[in-house]
Design a protein that fits this description.
It is a single chain. The protein has about 450 residues and is α+β, with helices and mostly antiparallel strands. It has three domains: about 5-110, Orthogonal Bundle (Arc Repressor Mutant, subunit A), CATH 1.10.10.10; about 130-205, no CATH class; about 225-455, no CATH class. The protein contains 14 helices and ten strands. The strands form three sheets. The chain has a five-stranded antiparallel sheet, with helices on one face. A three-stranded antiparallel sheet has the order 5-8-7. Strands 6-10 form a two-stranded antiparallel sheet. Helix 10 crosses helix 14.
Amino acid sequence: MPRSYRFAEFTVSPSRRTLTRAGREVPLIPRYFDLLVLLIDRRREAVHRQDILESVWSDVVVSDGALSQAVRTLRRALGDTAREPLFIRTMSRHGYRFIHPEVVEDEDAVLPHTSPAIAVDLAAAAPSTDDPFETALARLLEDGVPVEEDPDEARREAAETLHLLGTEETLRRLDRRPGHERARALLRDARWDVAGAGPVPLLGVPGSAAAILSLVLLRLRRAARLAGSRWGAASAGGALAGILAGLLGGLLLRLGDGSESPTSLPLCLGLIGALAGGTGAAGIGAGLAFAEAIARSFRGLALVLCGAATGGLTGAVAHLLVRWTLAGVFGQDLSSLGGGPEGLAIGGAAGLGYALSTPRPPGGGMATPRGAARIGAALLSGACCGIAGIVVCRLGGNLVGTSLNILAHAYNGSHVGLLPLARMLGESGPGPLTRTLSGAVEGVFFGTGLVVGLTRRPR
């Protein structure tokens, strides 16, 4: 029989996923409820922050502030405080522990019927005041933050408190007070983390431009913290995919009819693939990580646009560097090598595949699917990039394989031409079928490797 937990005037029912206070339900977003159950279930020990993130945020990557924010919300729901905790104690440099000494475990079947959900009673969590709105607004506007508190943490907590009190009334009172633009941006960002929070429009309100800029800067700081490790993992995934694609291409060219390629060709193409794949994935991966960290309302569109933009920029820079190198060393200026347009198409396709296979995490953060879901995301992204590779090559563009074929015609004695592969496919030269296959294979390998790396959960 499922268990429930009773302590003080609270009852937690994991099977019904409810927290009740004196028989009335207190709303919590799902991840915060999961955190409360975890702490109660392991109340005889201090739970490490990493264990909490692995258990509660197992499918997403979030910043350290997300956990602190979740604990603040739980304390507010329980009428608890950090300085004199009754329920949740912070264990310095370790994590958190549920410390209430009297927790009774019951069978869920004996729980009484609960009343409809109500807003959290903030009287126990907030300082005594005749007008809790004004107290929280003062903290949000940095007028009522004690000097010993972290102003960013205090303002974030004030924004969440105001959403619980009432978003519409908060915005009415905020109006045009000094600093209202930054306060409105923080309210807009915090609404995703408070159950029942109302909308916070930024367009068509006083100071809308400044509020939007404040929101962008807020999320840019978060993006910088979250995206670093994802960018490196994406680059590694693209490099590994490039190695595998290069080795496969080299083996096919070695086995082709009339091939005179040396035995070292697969290894050489693997190294070229690693460089090209790692560089491309570094650029596109950075764009996708940035988009996911900064965008919530339009996550899918942001992933496609940022993937396309960074892919195009990476491709254009790589194109110029290769042309400059070849012209400077060999006196050949090969303008037809792949570059910006190809990178734009592949980057946009990678963003589309990733957006379709990893819906926006409900509690914020960056998606990190596991197991079959991670494989599915990688394969769908690979399929999208494969289709984009076909379209690019059929329209006359050049990815790595067809660019190497251009080099083969420019330099006598080159072994990287696609002629052996074309003969295997029944073509006298690298025609539509050869270009289609080359673009498809490159796109599938690249997109799959990119997302395998991008979805690796950092430690």
